[in-house]
Amino acid sequence: MKKIYAVTACPTGVAHTYMAAESLIKAGKQKDMEIKVETRGAVGVENEITAQEIAEAHAIIVAADTDVQEGRFAGKPVVRVPVAQAIRNASGLIEQALAMEAAAPAAEAAPKASVQTEPAAKTKTRSPFYKHLMTGVSAMLPLVVAGGLLIAISFIFGIKAFEQEGTFAAALMDIGGGAAFALMVPVLAGFIAFSIAEKPGLAPGLIGGMLASQLGAGFLGGIIAGFLGGYVALYLKKYIKLPRNFEGLKPILLIPLLASGITGLLMIYVIGEPVKYIMDHLTLWLQSIGSTNAVLLGLLLGGMMAIDMGGPINKAAYTFSVGLLASQVYGPMAAVMAAGMTPPLGLWLATLIAKNKFTKEEKDAGKSAAVLGLSFITEGAIPFAASDPLRVIPCLVAGSAVTGALSMVFHATLQAPHGGAFVLLIPNAVGHVGLYALAIVIGSVVTALSLKFTKKTIAE
């Protein structure tokens, strides 16, 4: 029997990674075949595919929006798709993998034969830009979560208790703000560069990111530094040719030295100041934003969170808001998390107040959606949206847009970029917590009522 292996990974490593793995395993069982799926989630690599298994594989399915070290699959047929596609069409991906021609022994023996892309096919792939950016965001998120929560905990001892040196609150602030938040931009840039050029890209990316922080260019400068460092390292790796005996000097000495120097000089003399100017004005505008602009920004960010439920538009809004945390701008983060919670929460509420509009399976799924919504896992709405997209998605967008706008109008703030309703229990983690909770409730009700009036009644 042909052996198929798969790898799944998403930027946050919380939901899509495991939902895709479950779908592939389930679809494999329906075809009487066992599929081993390696997951690369927030807890790290689980169920890792071994070198022996790669050698025995007929084909590999890579359902990922971040770097999964595909170089190890060189010479093997690979079906490469965004992670969400494995959730929607796992069976089709397995059929596609089974239909691919096995690699010729010569191809396996020669790594440079490289990984094949999916067949002509009509399967959509993420752009390299998106994959590299999400690899950086994925690596940065644990720092943001840990740093944000430690800062919030320091406020339990008083909003300015950290200003007194030697206190426990000051120590927590040093860990969260002084260390974790200081590493955010360098790590973002470093792992973008790592995704582009692998290990040789790490040093120029980290150094470029640190310079972006020191120059005041913020997360925008970090993103530019990551791509710059990565592509400079990749170019040098490709075009520097040395005698075989000196090849070892390339990854250890030449590429880090030249790529870091080029990236650093460009950041200092060309890129840093203009990006700092943009970031300073963006930060100033966000800190002094008026009610009308706040509503518009909240509507926009909120709608983006619901329109593709974990897809690139959702991640663009999320990345923008997370990046602003490094500039001590917390309002957009609050709007984005609240708007990301309401799609599954609104669907759960709709299954209660409009039972005749949902199948028994959907009503059962509504209970799970409630838990996912409370945990800020927007992807819990995907099964509902997939079954009736023209009616469900507009309702989700409406509820999330209202939530985002209300959160901005209420001047809600959020220090941690994840955690859902559980963050509300931490004192001072959320500014204006009562109004913030009200925004989530109102958005969920808007979603549920919209669904009640737009979805068709199901005949029992």
TrEMBL record:
The chain crosses the membrane at residues 133-159, 171-197, 217-236, 248-272, 284-304, 316-339, 368-386, 393-413, 433-451. Signal peptide: none annotated. Residues 129-460 form the PTS EIIC type-2 domain. It is found in: Cell inner membrane. GO terms for cellular component: plasma membrane. GO terms for biological process: phosphoenolpyruvate-dependent sugar phosphotransferase system. GO terms for molecular function: carbohydrate:proton symporter activity; kinase activity; protein-N(PI)-phosphohistidine-fructose phosphotransferase system transporter activity; protein-phosphocysteine-sugar phosphotransferase activity. Pfam families: PTS_EIIC (PF02378), PTS_IIB (PF02302). Residues 2-99 form the PTS EIIB type-2 domain. InterPro entries: Bacterial_PTS_Sugar_Transport (IPR050864), PTS_EIIB-like_sf (IPR036095), PTS_EIIB_2 (IPR013011), PTS_EIIB_2/3 (IPR003501), PTS_EIIC (IPR003352), PTS_EIIC_2 (IPR013014), PTS_IIB_fruc (IPR003353), PTS_IIC_fruc (IPR006327). Keywords: Cell membrane, Kinase, Membrane, Phosphoprotein, Phosphotransferase system, Sugar transport, Transferase, Transmembrane, Transmembrane helix, Transport. It is a multi-pass membrane protein. NCBIfam families: FRU (TIGR00829), PTS_IIC_fructo (TIGR01427). This is FruA.
